[in-house]
Amino acid sequence: MGKRTWFLLLAALLALACGGGSSPSPSPSAPLTLQLDPAASGTPIPTAILGLDTPWTRLGDGIMQGGELIQDRSFRTLGTPGSPWQSQGPGTVTRLTTGGDPSPQGAGPADPGCARIVGGPTAGDLTGLIQVLLGPVKAGTPYQLCLSAYAEAGAPSIYVALGVPSPFASLTPTQYVATTTGAWTRARITLTPSQDAPSAELLVGVVGPGTVRLDEVRCSAAPDGRPSVDPLVLTRLGQLGTRVLRWPGGRLADTFDWKGSVGPTLQRGESPDLSGGFQTPALGLDEFLQLCEAIGATPIVQVNVLAPASEAADLVDYCNGGTNTPMGALRAANGHPAPYGVLHFELGNEPSPVYGGGDQAGSAYAALASTVAKAMLAREADLQLSGAVEASFALADWRSSVPLLANWTPEVLTPGAGLTPLLSALEGHYYSYFDTDPDEATRFRRLMAAGTVLERTRDALAGQSPLPLWITEYHVALEQNGVLQPGYLVDAASGLAVADETLALMQGGFQGACAFNLAEASGFGVLVHPGAWDLRPAGLALELLAPFAGESRLPATLAGVGSWSLGVGKGNIPTGTQYPLVAVLASRTATGRLRLALLNRSWDQPQSLVLGQAGPATLTWLAPADLSATNESAPVVALATESRSFVASGLLTLPPHSLVRVDF
Questions:
Q1: How does pLDDT run across 146-169, given as a tens digit for each residue?
Q2: Cis peptide leading into 349, omega within 30 of 0?
Q3: Co-location of 530 and 573 in the same domain
Q4: Alpha-carbon distance 434 to 431, whole Å?
Q5: What is the enclosing helix (H) or strand (E) of 152?
Q6: What is the pLDDT, as a whole number, of residue 37?
Q7: Whole-angstrom Cα distance, residue 274 to residue 251?
Q8: For 535-555, what is each residue's pLDDT tens digit?
Q9: What's phi and psi for 435, nearest 5 deg?
Q10: Range of the domain at 583
Q11: Are residues 565 and 546 in the same domain?
């Protein structure tokens, strides 16, 4: 996800991050009163606030069809904890560091090693390797399995099948690959499942005695073509009003090789994922940029500043160069002769020791980013480059005890670093609140500080640099002893926290933002259930607020609103934080009509207010009765719409923990 910060694992910091009780100010004795001037000159709400991250891993978080389904195709992780490959049978399976296929099908080997399978003693023995595929398989769809095999002794046959686990049951007819002693056999086999399988396995094994080396195992529905985006995802992106997409996704960018993500599936390389494994990108550079074209979104491409600067310069040419350049010609050969016209590139990701420099990692990052930026700008002078500042913990009570964090932004922005003259914007990441509480009430009350702390962070960063600010990752990060709690990242409470952050982003001072992220099996992601692509609560919040982007924001306040004080700080919430119990956003639509968003941040108290507006209106609610409810098993949390006619003195009552959009 791009943060999950090593430093929160330190016991001392966890102790510093814990604390405090909560106390409300007295509840108002009279209804709140909305104060606004519909005729006021409004400030445009940037459309770029409606952005999403799109990580390249796990078939682009499951949105891609026809991508490579196998991880670690050269068995680099075989025998290590967490390896996708598991051995089975009476024989033995080991990893060789050398001796792999020197000329496999498709791209050259990512690693010189391979797997060595020694079969069992009898003719009927099956010894081999099994892997759960990255995505589902569909009945009647032909999947092409590619592999390289080298018989050291006995020239045994290799059995291959797609099946379902526990125990393995084949979904495809029995197929075998003949091997040759002392030579590589490069096989392609078509496997067509007899039924759908959301969780399928590939089994590759040696039948009977004999010894075989196995290398470059690939399985895809589009081996000689390119993967495609699930069409329903395009529909959902339209619902969400998505105007910006970011790729390749968080700290994945720090090890990503963009050149290995282009061309037909078999031509692509492998990149490390966050678990230490290896995957072949299905959401590659072309797929990402063409997805942006399909929905009219602005692309933000992250640049690996740890790679040679020439790679970043070539990236600019691939995206924007003419076909008379080597990279532009490669883009044309891959099916897109016209330049993509990418302007926004993000240098690296976020504060991290991966950039070197120890406690002065900000200086090390600035040096790396400056070198890369100069190489990119030499290819195209009008690029919009952004540099990383520290935003998630900018106000945390304990921040000064972590020099890397405390020093980062001043080091990046110092004139001596030479980076800021090359930048058009700053980018930071923001999550709430990097800790958790056992009871729902306290947890929710802390979550509802998200927008307020984000606004204060904006003000603090604005005091250090005049450059525009992007928040290129935001969501919640509820952790226990430094470990993310997945259930708290997808529940209704997290959806309202994302709404609070989005409201803060729309209030001004931010050039754009990307919620983390488009889709993810567990944890983050606004979409869930591949094939159905239902919206999680965070996605529902974004859908509800999407119409405000591009409209004129009007000054709006609530007279009589109470506040909640959180007392001692916790996580990234500083001591003394308090926030109004109701947040309001007002805008004027393109047709001159009034639009409102109101968030009741109270855990248990309804809030009534006089809108002071008369006429018919449509109300769209995100008002979950149960803050722990999720859409993980089935769509339970949903938006509700009603029509209502208001008189100027009429009341609108907001249930506890609810969000409403009012369209007059």
A1: 999 999 999 999 999 999 988 899
A2: no
A3: no
A4: 7
A5: strand 143-153
A6: 85
A7: 8
A8: 999 999 999 999 999 999 999
A9: -165, -175
A10: 556-663
A11: no
